[in-house]
Amino acid sequence: MSIEIKIRKNEPIDRAIRRMKKKLERENIIKGVRAKRYYEKPCEKRRRKEKVMAFTQMLRRRYEA
Fold first, then answer.
1. Any residues with CB less than 8 A from the CB of 19 and at least 6 apart, and which?
2. What's the rounded Cα separation, in Å, for the pair 43 and 49?
3. What is the pTM of this model?
4. CA separation for the pair 62, 59 (Å, rounded)
5. CB 44 within 8 A of CB 24
């Protein structure tokens, strides 16, 4: 899984780095690396996922037409 960014002619390095970061973010690579930084018990994973699901359901109920 390698990300390849080709620097365009006369493109500043800052802009190329920004494009690379956006590509990494879109493919959820940074998120995955941060999640795997520390071991998470299976029960903690389940609890976190349930919390996220409850939050999204609450938002859906709140903003339903």
1. 5
2. 10
3. 0.55
4. 5
5. no
